[in-house]
Amino acid sequence: MGISRRDFLKFGLLTGGLLTGGYKISESVASLRGSKVASPQYKYVPNLCEVCFWNCNLFAVVTNGKIVALEGNPLSQRGRGMLCGRGNAGMSLVYNPDRLKKPLLNTGKRGDPKWREVSWDEALNFVADKLKDIISKYGPESVALISHGSGGFWWKHLLNALGSDNIFAPSFANCRGARDVGFLLTFGSDCGSPENYDIENSKFLLLVGYHIGENAHNSHVQEFMIALSKGAKLAVLDPRLSNIASKANWWLPVKPGTDLAVLLALIHVIIKEELYDKDFVKNYTVGFDKLAEAVKDCTPEWAEKESDIPASAIVEIAREMSACKPAVCAIGGRFSVWYGDDVQRNRAIAIINALMGSWGRKGGFYLRASISVPKYPGLPPYPEAKPPLTGYPFALLPTTTALRKATITGDPYPVKAWIAYSCNIIQAIPSIQETIEAIHKLDLMVVVDILPSCHMPYADVVLPECSYLERYDNLFVDRMKVPAVSLRAPAIEPLFESRPSWWICKELGRRLGIEAYFPWKDGEEYVKKVCEAMNISFDELYEKGIILFPERANPYFGPNNPPHFDTPSGKVELYSSQLAEAGFDPLPKYTKHPEPPEGFFRLLSGRHPLHTFSRTINYPILNELVPENELWIHPKRAKELNLKSGDYVRLINQDGVKSSFKVKVKVTNRIRPDCVYMPHGWGVKAKELRWAYGKGASDNELYSTYKVDPIMGGTGMRVNFVKILKEG
């Protein structure tokens, strides 16, 4: 059940002190490293973690040409001098025996591959020849990139240089897109990454399906402990008692699909009892009267009937939260696509923050710093490209939903080549059969990765990239409270025949006749030229790993920083004229969602603190600690099915799709009886992964149905239901 709140707060106070000490040790990173720096035996190389996408700054400690330790950089805002359990396991990737070691060509069929090891020349010539043929027949827009990772920068540059804007991040349609669009429509700004939550100064936190700690977002976890140690109050709206919910003042085990009813009832109470920030609402918002009219019937009593959350709890939370304004953070998780109306749920979360006056205020949402990395000097402009495949009116990025449709149908134009960079699309995108159908329509499928993955059997060619600890990437910027720029540099030479993406793309560019876009000699020269363009010292950046610009920090509204909102009205739009003009509800509106049929459970999934989805399942040190996922089930339902903790089961969903592998049962009161839950990322089918293969069950395999959000194309996955089949 986790540690007690008292022990948790005690631990938070301790780590808070360590954090403060970490920042005060010295302005010089060298002094932190002490005597090791003076010894030629040790070399400290700056880098940023890529085990998850928080990208905490670190130093790789190298001796005798081998990485022996990873240490958090004390100047880092993302890590605050610390690495999480995942980040500390980064060497498990570098020295993983299952790494892709040489380029591979598939001489068999997609889905039934026969691999032949080839030279880089043969592999790159194969890819370049295929791309030339595809582009000549269908145009450059027929080439698409699916990317999830910072090294994707080089591949985006390659596609733009070819004349394609079809660059896809599965995380948009399948994860954070609904939240980003909901906040953008309201405040004219999304929450960014890392998100601009001023957690450490917050006095009240409302988490809506946001599992701080299980997502291992380093600085947020540390800030959360600081906030609790200072007495911040916490309410968690979640069908499951997550680790963070166990520390809450209020856990609200909401019936899945009814979160929006509770949020509208909170808004109802805040307006009816005049608990909102009157000055902020009057001066900086539009549509308040229309909002008040829209929620007049959304009473706590109505919400209780819909959601199972007591009306008294809704009223109490609204009052307690309002007493803490503006130091209030109402937060929706990154995994924000649930039921197909997810922008509206996130709009409601944004509206609560607006009523609290928390945007741009201490303890609410700080204003992200303005900083960017310039382009490499002297590059020619990109050729004009056709509009990318967004498919939905408020999609901020091209959507994988639209990509698959165009690949299968050829509408609005054919897509004939996919380059999958550092993402496991079989595990990441719902409806695996639809993904496989699309792949079989391609003329070319390229996989670029470090370890084998579930989509590798469908590739025509596999290109082994080196790990983040073996390469340069473009400079990173922090748009956090303090603007900053960070460096990733190689700690060791690439192992085996793996190569960095800057090199792979440069070599492809030369073969494709676009070498003018790749004039740099190597990654170091690239980074040095960009440093010159930013007017910063490469040597200083290499020594410190990060350069901060505190003189440019301005995280809160004030006399010299008046409120500004990048919306059509220039104000916070409680009522969205943009949605109204596009034919959508301009204010969040509750709709009922189907409940599980008799004998079924709603399938929920999320993250595990020690794993980044399928990315880390094959890290030996992490796999030893958590080798498989578990299926959470309420004791009442477990008794009905004669199940106990430790039993193995399989799942079958409403479409008759059965899990390929078994999953261990965890009987717990920490979940509602109408749901089951399991962490995402397991059920890996790549036999080349000796630790990961066949362990646990894949939630994505069971997400054969999804509900598309018509506003931005998000693929809601919590519309799937499962039955439990006992093994044996």
Descriptive report:
Strands 5-4-15-14-13-6-7 form a 7-stranded mixed sheet, with helices on one face. The protein has a 6-stranded mixed sheet with strand order 21-23-22-27-20-24. The two termini are 30 Å apart. It folds into 4 domains: 5-94, N-terminal domain of TfIIb; 99-168 and 407-465 and 500-519, Rossmann fold (3-Layer(aba) Sandwich); 174-209 and 222-368 and 556-581, 3-Layer(aba) Sandwich (Dimethylsulfoxide Reductase, domain 2), CATH 3.40.228; 601-726, Barwin-like endoglucanases. By secondary structure, the chain is of the alpha/beta class.
CATH architecture label name of the largest domain: 3-Layer(aba) Sandwich
Enumerate the strands of the largest sheet in spatial order, edge to edge or round the barrel. 5-4-15-14-13-6-7
Span of the ends, CA to CA: 30 Å
Low-confidence stretches: 1-38
CATH superfamily of the largest domain: Dimethylsulfoxide Reductase, domain 2
Question: How many domains?
Answer: 4
Q: What is the CATH topology descriptor of the largest domain?
A: Dimethylsulfoxide Reductase, domain 2
Bin the helical content.
25-40%
β-strand percent reads: 15-25%
How many strand elements?
27
**Highest CATH level, the class of the largest domain:** Alpha Beta
The shape is globular
Put simply, the count of helices is: 25
Overall pLDDT confidence? 93
Using only CA atoms, what is the Rg? 25 Å
Overall structural class, as computed from helix and strand content, comes to: alpha/beta
Major sheet characteristics: 7 strands, mixed
